[in-house]
Each structure stands twice: as C-alpha cells, then as structure tokens.
Specification:
8-stranded antiparallel β-sheet; 22% strand; binds 2-oxoglutaric acid; 4-stranded antiparallel β-sheet; Jelly Rolls; 295 residues; alpha+beta
Length: 295
C-alpha cells in the first residue's frame, strides 16, 4: 500500500483547487488501498442497521458508525451514507493514519499541519435513482476556515451516468453559506437564517455557471473546498455499484464554531468558538517535512 501520493502534486493542481474549489488527481492510491477500502466499505454498509444514531442513543458514550439508509421503500438496491467509520473499523483508521491522504490534503491546502476530521461513505447500488442534493459542506459543520479539504476517493469506476460528483466551479468564492438541507439531516440542521441552496440542475445551460465532473477509476480522487457547491445524480448503471469514500482533513486555519444545530462530532472535543481544532478526536496525520504518528 502506498505511503506517499501515487503521483506528484504539481503547482497547477494546487492552482486548480484554489480557483475552482475542486481538483481531480489521478492514480493517487494504489490497487491495494482501493481493494482494502472497497472491501471495508462493503462490510461496513452490510453491517449498518439503517438508523441515524444520535449521541443520546450511544451506549456508555462509545462511538458507533452513524449514517442513513436512504433506500426507498421496497427497493432491494441500497443507497447508504455512513459517517465516522474510523472509530469502529481498523481499515478506516489505517487509511487516516497511514495512507497518503493527509499529505495530499496538506499539499493542496498549503498547510503545515494536517489533522483528520472524519470519514464518510456514499454508496449507491446499481439503478439507485436518488440524487445527492446540491450543497456545501461547511454549513453542516462546527468548523470554520478555508483549510478543510474533503477527499472523495473512487473505489469503483465512476462517470456522470453512475453518479459521479459534479461541482459548480468557483462557488467557494461567492461568499455564500447555503442552508444544509440534505434529506438525511434536514430536520436537525435546518438554519432559518440561511438561504436554500439552488437546484443547479436547472441551470445547466446558464453560461454564468461552469460545471465540472470527471470520469474516474479506482484510485483517482476529487479534493474539494468546504464551500464549493456540489452534488451527484442517480446511478443509471444496471450492474455497477458506485462507492465514493470521503475523508475530511483540517489544515492550519480550521477553527471550532459552537453552533446550536450542527453535525455531531464523535469524541467530545470540548472546544470553544475560535479554538484551533485539535485534541484526540482530530489526530495529526501529517506535518510538512515530517510525518507524525499521532496528536
Ligand atoms: O458522493 C456523493 O454523492 C456526495 C459526496 C459529497 O457530498 C462529499 O463527499 O462531500
């Protein structure tokens, strides 16, 4: 399994990330990582019982994988999202601590230090019709700053027809924070003061917007900014499951923001608004010039 990025990250890749809010990098993870994480993902999804577990339901405070089974009534093909797998599954923890992901995130964010934030799986079986709604990530989180990169690793081949992620280029620079309104979380995270995210599928022909998406192979990644607008379409394939594995990474300017309604972070961070995001829940996984084993 590769410890360093499968390909060199060039200055033009960093510029694309800064300009568009997303960059696609090819062949960053080798076949061993892809097979290991694909197997681990299938196992985690098969073990998930389909409830959205809130902190109060967690026995003795022990963290468990949370998520949502979005599968429509009566459908045998599943659409499942899971969060915080690294707390329960050693393969996901190894990915955070031993893979080249943290180094890649550090290079793109131009950060000195990279901490792990959390991981999230998006699996859509063949023929799953559901979209992932257009959204930005940051309004869901108790974290501010530009240095919060998400890395979406393709674990199966992906195209626009098989629910490849699409982006509105440059939307991270609009100064907008849209209401987090994905179906899984809309009740708990709704913020009245924020405007809803437009349905950008209705604006595909508008020359004001540039849409970006890529055909991908296992090992290719998308790295995106926390405020770039993105979403994905249905999986139109009759045979091909689509597995996207996102890991989120914190760089130098990431700060905690106490919010009334926000994604629950495992591990009881005990941080106040304005604090550097640090501590046991967010292990240091990479530092410029030298790697560190732990926080
Ligand atoms: O895979 C998807 O459909 C959406 C991914 C996403 O929203 C993310 O990784 O932030």
């Amino acid at each position: 399994m590769n410890r360093t990025p499968g390909n060199k990250i060039r200055e033009e890749d960093i510029h694309a990330y800064e300009r568009d809010g997303v960059v696609c990098l090819r062949g960053m993870f080798d076949r061993d990582w892809c097979e290991r994480m694909k197997e681990a993902s299938i196992k985690a999804v098969s073990e998930f019982k389909g409830t959205f577990e809130q902190s109060s339901q967690r026995p003795n405070g022990v963290p468990r994988v949370r998520g949502k089974d979005h599968t429509s009534e009566g459908e045998k093909f599943r659409f499942v999202t899971l969060l915080f797998m690294w707390r329960s599954y050693p393969d996901f923890e190894a990915f955070a601590r031993e893979s080249p992901a943290a180094e890649i995130a550090g290079a793109l964010m131009r950060s000195k230090t990279v901490r792990f934030f959390y991981d999230q799986l998006f699996t859509k079986d063949a023929t799953v019709k559901d979209r992932t709604s257009w959204h930005q990530d940051q309004p869901f989180w108790p974290v501010s700053g530009h240095h919060v990169a998400s890395m979406w690793l393709a674990l199966t081949p992906v195209s626009k027809d098989t629910s490849g992620v699409e982006y509105v280029a440059g939307s991270h620079l609009w100064g907008k924070h849209y209401n987090p309104l994905l179906t899984a979380t809309s009740k708990t995270l709704h913020h009245d003061e924020l405007e809803p995210c437009p349905d950008f599928s209705l604006h595909k022909d508008d020359p004001k917007y540039k849409f970006l998406s890529w055909d991908m192979q296992p090992g290719d990644i998308l790295v995106h900014h926390p405020l770039v607008v993105h979403g994905s379409g249905p999986n139109l394939s009759a045979t091909q499951r689509r597995i996207g594995f996102s890991s989120r990474w914190l760089g130098d300017d990431a700060r905690w923001v106490q919010k009334e309604k926000t994604m629950y972070v495992e591990g009881d961070p005990q941080l106040k608004t304005g604090d550097v995001v640090q501590g046991e829940p967010f292990p240091i996984c990479w530092e410029r010039k030298r790697e560190m084993a732990d926080a």
